[in-house]
C-alpha cells in the first residue's frame, strides 16, 4: 500500500518547503535564487525550478521504479515502464487528491487497518489534510503549471496510471459489494 500525489502539486509544495526550511536548502541555492518565486523561476529553465529531461532527481515514479540509477533520470521511458510494472506488487495505491476513494479501496484490501475509516469524517475539521495551505506558496500561474506539466510527462503519466488503477479497483469493489 502506498499513496501518491499530483506531480505538479507535489513539485510546487516541495519547492516552497525547501525555501521555507533553510536547513534543507541545497548549498547551490543562492540568496538571490531564494527570493524568486516559482512563477519567476520556472520560465528561466533553471534546474531548481523544474525537472528537465536528463536531469537526475527523485520524482514519484522513482520510488516505484527501483534502485537502478536510470530510475532517477527525468524523462526516462524505461523508468516509467519499470515503475508501472512494480505497481502491480502493491495491493493498493491511493491518491492524495481523492482520500475517500483511496480509503474505500484500502478498507476492502486491508480491513484490519481501515475497517472504521467511515467513522472519521474527513470534512469535520478533525483531520487536517493540508496543515498550512498557501503559507509559503504564492498563487501559481497556469503558465507555470503548464511548463511543469510538460517537463514532468512521465511522472504525470505514472500518476494517471495509478489514478485509473485506483478507480478500477473501487468500481470492482463496489460491484462485488452489491453482489453480496
TrEMBL record:
Gene Ontology cellular-component annotations: Golgi membrane
InterPro entries, alphabetized: Heparan_SO4_2-O-STrfase (IPR007734), P-loop_NTPase (IPR027417), Sulfotransferase (IPR005331)
Record carries keyword Phosphoprotein: no
Cross-referenced Gene3D superfamilies: P-loop containing nucleotide triphosphate hydrolases
Keyword annotations: Glycoprotein, Golgi apparatus, Membrane, Signal-anchor, Transferase, Transmembrane, Transmembrane helix
Pfam families with a match to the protein in the record: Sulfotransfer_2 (PF03567)
GO molecular function, one term: sulfotransferase activity
UniProt subcellular location: Golgi apparatus membrane
Membrane-topology annotation of the record: Single-pass type II membrane protein
Entry similarity comment: Belongs to the sulfotransferase 3 family.
Protein name: Sulfotransferase
Organism of derivation: Halocaridina rubra (Hawaiian red shrimp)
Taxonomic placement: Eukaryota, Metazoa, Ecdysozoa, Arthropoda, Crustacea
Amino acid at each position: 500500500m502506498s499513496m501518491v500525489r499530483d506531480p505538479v502539486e507535489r513539485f510546487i509544495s516541495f519547492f516552497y518547503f525547501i525555501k521555507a526550511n533553510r536547513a534543507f536548502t541545497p548549498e547551490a541555492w543562492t540568496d538571490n535564487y531564494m527570493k524568486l518565486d516559482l512563477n519567476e523561476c520556472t520560465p528561466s529553465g533553471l534546474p531548481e525550478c523544474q525537472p528537465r529531461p536528463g536531469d537526475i532527481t527523485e520524482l514519484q515514479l522513482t520510488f516505484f521504479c527501483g534502485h537502478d540509477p536510470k530510475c532517477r533520470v527525468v524523462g526516462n521511458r524505461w523508468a516509467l515502464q519499470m515503475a508501472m510494472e512494480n505497481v502491480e506488487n502493491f495491493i493498493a495505491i491511493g491518491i492524495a487528491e481523492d482520500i475517500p476513494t483511496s480509503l474505500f479501496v484500502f478498507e476492502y484490501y486491508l480491513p484490519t487497518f481501515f475497517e472504521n475509516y467511515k467513522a472519521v469524517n474527513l470534512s469535520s475539521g478533525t483531520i487536517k489534510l493540508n496543515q498550512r495551505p498557501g503559507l509559503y506558496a504564492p498563487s501559481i500561474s497556469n503558465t507555470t503549471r503548464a511548463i511543469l506539466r510538460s517537463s514532468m510527462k512521465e511522472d504525470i503519466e505514472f500518476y494517471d496510471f495509478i489514478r485509473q488503477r485506483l478507480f478500477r479497483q473501487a468500481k470492482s469493489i463496489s460491484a462485488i459489494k452489491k453482489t453480496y
